Amino acid sequence: MWTVAEQADGGLSKVSFELLAWGRGLADKLAAIGRADAKLCSVVLGNKLNQADLEELILRGADKLYVAESPAFEHALIEPMSCALEYLIRRHGPEIVIAGATSVGRTVMPYVAVRIPTGLTADCTGLDIDEQTGNLVQTRPAVGGNVLATILTAKHRPQMATVRPRSAASPPRMADRKGEIVRARIPEELLQSPTEWLGLRSFAKDEVNIQDAEMVVSGGRGLKKGENFALIRELAGVLGAAVGASRDVVDRGWIPYPHQVGLSGKTVSPKLYVAVGISGSIQHLAGMRTAQYITAINTDPEAQIFQTADFGVVGDLFEVLPALVEEVRQRKSKKERSQ
Amino acid sequence: MIPGAGMHIIVCIKQVPETSNVQMDERTGTMLREGVESIINPLDLYAVELALQLKEAHGGRAIVLSMGPPRADKAIREAISMGADGGVLLSHRALAGSDTYATSLALAKAVARLRPFDLILAGVRATDGETGQVGPGVASLLRLPLSTYTSRILAMTDGKITVERLVETGYETLCLPLPCLLTVGKEIGYPRLPTLRGKQKAREQQVPVWGPAELGIEEDMVGSAGSPTRVVRIARPQIARKGQRVETARLGATRAAKEFADFLEEHDLL
Prior knowledge:
heterodimer, B: alpha/beta, globular
């Protein structure tokens, strides 16, 4: 039972640990049906890895780590990453390999899967073990969330899947957990890359990647003008949320594409999603309906967004937003004063 | 690139159901699909647009390739009406039921048959399957360098292409040798409309249809038979939530905002 960790910001990305929650559940179920060899392993391909991060993986549930370090992995270039992962899979024959549905995961996993060849299921929202067969039961949405498909990779191994970031919480640390760290040597010829990495234009510090954010406030056509995104930013600011957008307003150039939530944009799964002036088309819903709490503000009581909202305000956002910003500010400062 | 001959670009496109007029069934809380209209997958339109822009800048040809039922011929002709030079349809009963592996295999075999080529383009993902796996799968089977989530072409000289791609932390710049495969997102350009001349060409163009025989593969290597994954169940998920609703018409904006803040506080969101 393998999970694929990813480097980020000099450490390991959060999803590397979230995967352990999925993995632990699956490894335990495999053990319960008599697969004694079901160990939870994490594969770490990176450069200048911290020993503390590796130990963290073990403390949070990994029984074993396969670690390979090389400058070739510094920028997650596809060829070295895929060749190394394929090499390790062929050498050690895991039953299941799961990775985060990140830009790296969604590129490396299919690149590897077709070479084994084996089956890969993208963006799973559910993973389970079939008690009869021991097969991995993969559940994922499709057709804009219209259907929920259950998928099996009955004969091919490993069974590969990607899962959405934030779809599970990192397991807690168990202070005295022990595990094995295996340093893998990847043959030099597999670490070649015809592609060169030339640089990264980072997003501004306050432009949080909406997929990592705990809360997202999104604006839609109801804002009437691009400048009115300032209202969205204000609410996002007091809540500590990231700013999202519907496809409509991105197409109008009111806000750049990285903020677009939906089928041809990003999929987010935050704790709180606030849809402001968004009607709730299927395309948009596909990108945010797994949020824990969905709230909406819209003047149209028939807007489809209200059917998927846990809390809705039928009203004018130009009146409600300033009032809400004020209310939230007051409550937060009251909280701070009383602490 | 053959000097003087321009670029040979292949664009992989997919015909998908039009999902924008899907309504929700209030009783069951699930989605209803109205009509069976088919369109070119939206992100593939951006790939076609990029191919046409590159063709205009460097000369050459852009061919579209699609795998689907016979009616996917319409999608190919739509791309021709935008300006593509031609297309090939992969369609055969043995191809039906292909998962992303079998689809990648069939498309890779077709691309190999269309050699030589400089560039293969595709949209990042399709709106029906939403896996985003076929682009990388085709690149891998053909041993091609790959850039997914490509947002901009910065330069193309001396057999290399420099691109920007959108990742979680920002825009990454990569330089890939040609031939390579790029999957593109919306920032790559704005898809042009078909022209009258294009539509005429689309009506008259011969679009060959290939099956396993033309691809040089056995029927059991594709379709359901050749697919490692299998959908065993489809459910219509309940996506409606029974939520509270307040109206400013009754409460006023201030009161409504207070109720909203109450909701946030109740759920530890403040």
